[in-house]
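Title: Prediction job returns without error message
Component: structure pipeline
Severity: low
Priority: P3
Assignee: unassigned

Description:
Job completed but the reporter wants confirmation the result is attached to the right record. Sequence as submitted:
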Amino acid sequence: ALALAASGVGRRAWAASQPLRLASMEGLRRAEVQLGDQRCDFLTWEHLNWECAAAEHRVEDQTGLQRSAALRYAGEPRSLFHLATASGRSRRVRWKGVRLPARLSLTVAPADYADLGGTLELFVDGEPRGELLLDAARLQQWEVTLGAPRDGATLEFELRGSGAAVGVDAELPR
């Protein structure tokens, strides 16, 4: 029993020393998701997505890790955090209480099935920090300068555009 407890403590200590990936189980659990003004509050474990049950009828419309959909982004299967608009409404995803570096490096790629032309906007603590037009089916590294590291910040994305879907990821320091 003591060895098992020590193993658990060691695993938690190791995890706490690793960056927080948005496209991870911890990133999924910490995400707050909205479709338009409706909060998506049902986490579907079989798909690893947040669902707004009244508005989303396809797995591809849901937001999260998309483990059951086998989506491709920019022509390749990638492990990204999936955001999609549904029923003509924008999608917001936020992570509260995160540590952000002075320069934030984001991986962004449109889903292959989606319409191009959507817009992904980034907010930090409610302030707009940049906007990316999803006009090409390519993987992009989006570098955003924040000026100084921030503790306890809120990182938020808003995806707009009919039929838009995108995968995102970032590693945030602990």
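Comment from assignee: result matches the submitted record. The radius of gyration is 16 Å.
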